[in-house]
Write a structure and sequence with these properties.
One of its GO terms (molecular function) is oxidoreductase activity, acting on paired donors, with incorporation or reduction of molecular oxygen, NAD(P)H as one donor, and incorporation of one atom of oxygen. Residues 329-377 form the Phenol hydroxylase-like C-terminal dimerisation domain. InterPro entries: FAD-bd (IPR002938), FAD/NAD-bd_sf (IPR036188), Phe_hydrox_C_dim_dom (IPR012941), PHOX_C_sf (IPR038220), RIFMO-like (IPR050641), Thioredoxin-like_sf (IPR036249). Residues 62-173 form the FAD-binding domain. There is one protein chain. The protein is of the alpha+beta class. The chain has 3 domains: 2-99, 2-Layer Sandwich (D-Amino Acid Oxidase, Chain A, domain 2), CATH 3.30.9.10; 103-212, FAD/NAD(P)-binding domain (3-Layer(bba) Sandwich); 243-374, Phenol hydroxylase, C-terminal dimerisation domain (Glutaredoxin). The protein is 33% helix and 26% strand. The protein is elongated, with a radius of gyration of 26 Å. Bound molecules: flavin-adenine dinucleotide. Flavin-adenine dinucleotide is lined by residues 12, 94, 116-117, 124, 127-131, 133.
Length: 378
């Protein structure tokens, strides 16, 4: 790892705390302090709370030999003023320096793979450490599983290293600004706006919220993320979640839940957006045979789903025959629209096992979908 050290040092204290701050048990609060940065206040399990604050250079000067537990508690009390704070029981505390780093490579000699804090380090400011580690695991598990099963060529495992290192670098970029702002400093690019560090931090949090929640992560083009050949928006991004309806019961269901059916963990979904059957029925009939061939070639690795625009009694009523794979109605067209697919043309969409969009082609292009898989399947 190439590590960038910062001047920032933070304290965290978990304790039974009595305070006159309003709504102290509501969940999470951020307190704009004069000398202790943007103070973190969190309701923890049982009767405990966590308080976190920054030791700025002036405070660090006060403690040339390092800060003791009692001094940390005193500074915590100071950081929350004008509210009163009484620490009745101290459960845990820590004092740490903020560093930012990403491993130069997340993969070595084919099967040595790094993830979690071993791959990337940063501040705890936007609460991303464990979250990013879980994203690493989610990205890696199905690729490693598929390689072990003999499904994939080595190029698939290599995308773990490139995709997750890219995301970690983006995280570090965000963290550099976040850590500075939480510590009470305004990074150069935000200076001259006439706003305080707390005000810039609040806006910065909003501007980066998609990434921080893990929903806005995107991956570069690769053997897995290829340019869509249909009207669909993009590949390498998380697939949209919308409501669809199962035939018969006709109850709304999250599209994401349908992707987890049939013991589908670790499997690909090829979704046939069948469009409006009045316009697409004949073309749909043509894809039954190549779809069955695709499913046969990749048995156990992928599943097929048909999503039809509108509603009908069932697949036979709408398509004049059986549906390919699992079957759902996109009654109000929200799924077609969220994926950017025209109901008059339909499309074929490949969704990776981690729900990232891999590829898309026209309704008549099942051979292109087969070609997509042939690039990385053994
Ligand atoms: C104060 C603080 C607050 C945080 N808050 C958040 C938050 O709100 N949200 C969030 O997402 N993240 C948060 N994080 C970050 C999060 O805790 C870490 O990113 C996460 O725990 C890293 O998990 P990991 O499994 O990669 O590494 P670790 O949790 O460090 O696990 C590595 C394990 O490997 C063991 N080990 C090391 N060497 C060896 C060896 N040679 N042999 C065998 N075992 C070994 C270690 O003992 C350890 O158990 C916070 C971190 C801090 C410090």
């Amino acid at each position: 790892m190439d590590t960038d050290s910062t001047l920032y040092e933070w304290i965290r204290i978990d304790a039974k705390i009595v305070t006159d701050m309003p709504d102290a048990d509501l969940g999470i609060a951020s307190i704009e302090s004069k000398n202790h940065g943007n103070v973190l206040w969190i309701k923890l399990d049982r009767d405990a709370h966590r308080i976190g604050f920054a030791l700025n250079p002036k405070l660090l000067e006060k403690y040339p030999n390092g800060i003791t537990q009692d001094q940390a508690v005193e500074e915590a009390i100071e950081s929350m003023k004008p509210f009163k704070l009484e620490v009745q029981r101290l459960d845990w505390w820590t004092h740490y320096k903020i560093r930012q780093s990403v491993a130069r490579s997340l993969q070595k000699d084919a099967y040595i793979l790094l993830g979690g804090d071993a791959a990337h380090l940063h501040s705890s400011g936007f609460a991303q450490g464990m979250n990013t580690g879980i994203h690493d695991a989610t990205n890696l598990a199905w690729k490693l599983g598929g390689v072990v099963k003999g499904w994939y060529k080595p190029s698939v495992l290599e995308t773990y290293a490139s995709e997750r290192r890219g995301a970690a670098k983006q995280l570090i970029q965000i963290d550099m600004d976040a850590a500075a702002l939480i510590s009470g400093d305004i990074p150069k690019k935000f200076q001259g706006l006439g706003r305080t560090a707390d005000q810039v931090l609040s806006q910065f949090w909003k501007d980066t919220i998609d990434f921080n929640l893990g929903l806005g992560i995107s991956y570069s083009p690769s053997v897995l993320n290829q340019s869509p050949l249909s009207s669909m928006h993009a590949c390498g991004v998380r697939c949209p979640d919308t409501l669809v309806r199962a035939p018969g019961i006709n109850m709304p269901r999250r599209f994401y839940d349908t992707l987890l059916e049939d013991g589908a963990t670790g499997r690909w979904s090829v979704v046939i957006f069948a469009g409006n059957p009045a316009l697409t029925q004949a073309r749909y009939a043509e894809l039954r045979e190549p779809a069955a061939k695709l499913a046969g070639r990749h048995k156990g690795m992928l599943r097929l789903v048909t999503l039809l625009f509108g509603s009908a009694g069932g697949a036979w009523a709408a398509l004049n025959g059986a549906a390919v794979g699992r079957f759902y109605f996109d009654s109000d067209g929200q799924a077609h629209s969220a994926f950017g697919i025209d109901q008059s043309s339909g499309a074929l969409v490949v969704i990776r096992p981690d729900h990232i969009l891999g590829f898309a082609a026209g309704l008549d292009d099942m051979d292109k979908i087969a070609g997509y898989f042939d690039e990385f399947v053994t």
